[in-house]
TrEMBL record:
Pfam families: Peptidase_S26. GO terms for cellular component: membrane. It comes from Melaminivora suipulveris. InterPro entries: LexA/Signal_pep-like_sf, Pept_S26A_signal_pept_1, Pept_S26A_signal_pept_1_Lys-AS, Pept_S26A_signal_pept_1_Ser-AS, Peptidase_S26. It is found in: Membrane. It catalyses: Cleavage of hydrophobic, N-terminal signal or leader sequences from secreted and periplasmic proteins. The gene is lepB. This is Signal peptidase I. The chain crosses the membrane at residues 7-25, 31-48, 100-121.
């Protein structure tokens, strides 16, 4: 058992070291991989507890009880009726889980539930930037549906069911193509085969202008200024966008991404043909969003899920609810 203490201490130290290195920026962490490994390791300890360690402790406790019963029987034959001592406390100590099982097998049910929920049903995210204003604000805590677009295996993100096709207007969380360890959130404006153009701050899809209605100006409390606000309709979904009329229309600093030959940049903006198996996404804060205009298309294998609900914003409880 002493060897298991050292092994467990080394495993826990490795987990703590990984998290610490990730937190300090020494390595690029992967939470999905970390959670998967934690599930596997604690699951192995949980099985070991059920199949090996607990039966071993029970046998030791039973052996103690049998020895005590044999001793009482011998004392009875000698005519000694009163026997001092109680073995229940000793049995309790024998049956008690050691610390190294408390911190592994004891945590497995909770870790397994979190892993399954996060991998196949819903995953929480926090909005870190204003690229999706006014739909989503900085500090919004959102839920992402992981099965709408098809169930994917955790870590490797391989799709195993088809699910519902991605639709224009969906708010999608995805792995940022230039750095897949990072999760981004944007709105889908183009699906495979679409000709998407954003010229002079006007969105058109397949040559048809997206229906737009002017709304009262939007006041951004962080920027302390007003922006032009519009309601767009992509498919059957209506959502709001804001535009900075002082910002230039042309896309400045677009990278040399894969499939850039499918895009045409000009002083008016950009027009792209979306390749098969890819999507074109933009932020609702059109002039403050690093999106497909700059780094290209999102491949299907990078999809994480569809964002649909704000479950908390500690600075504004009125934010709680669903959104388009």
């Amino acid at each position: 058992m002493q060897a298991m203490q050292y092994i467990t201490a080394a495993i826990l130290a490795a987990f703590v070291g990984y998290v610490g290195a990730w937190y300090t920026g020494a390595i690029e962490g992967n939470f999905a991989l970390l959670l998967f490994m934690a599930t596997v390791v604690t699951g192995a300890y949980w099985l070991g507890e059920r199949l090996v360690f607990l039966p071993r402790r029970r046998r030791a406790a039973q052996a103690l009880q049998d020895a005590a019963a044999q001793r009482r029987a011998e004392l009875d034959r000698m005519g000694i009726q009163k026997v001092d001592g109680d073995i229940q406390e000793a049995q309790g100590r024998i049956l008690m889980q050691p610390w190294w099982l408390d911190w592994t097998a004891g945590l497995f049910p909770v870790i397994a539930i979190v892993f399954l929920l996060r991998s196949f049903l819903f995953e929480p995210f926090k909005i870190p930037s204003g690229s999706m204003i006014p739909t989503l604000l900085v500090g919004d805590l959102i839920l992402v549906n992981k099965f709408t677009y098809g169930i994917r295996l955790p870590v490797i993100n391989k799709k195993i069911t088809d699910g519902t096709p991605v639709r224009r207007g969906d708010v999608m969380v995805f792995r940022y193509p230039p750095q897949p360890s990072m999760d981004y959130i944007k709105r889908v404006v183009g699906i495979p085969g679409d000709e998407v153009a954003y010229l002079n701050k006007r969105l058109t899809i397949n040559g048809q202008p997206v229906p737009t209605t002017a709304l009262p100006d939007y006041f951004d409390q962080d920027a302390m200024r007003y922006f032009k606000q519009f309601e767009e309709q992509l498919g059957d979904k209506r959502h709001r966008v804001i535009v900075n009329t002082d910002a230039p229309a042309f896309v400045q600093g677009a990278s040399n991404f894969q499939g850039r030959d499918q895009c045409r940049y000009s002083v008016e903006g950009v027009a792209c043909t979306v390749p098969q198996g890819h999507y074109f996404l933009m932020g609702d804060n059109r002039d403050n969003s690093l999106d497909s205009r700059y780094w290209g298309f999102v491949p299907d294998e990078n999809i994480v899920g569809r964002a649909f609900f704000v479950w908390m914003n500690f600075g504004n409880f009125k934010r709680i609810g669903s959104f388009n």
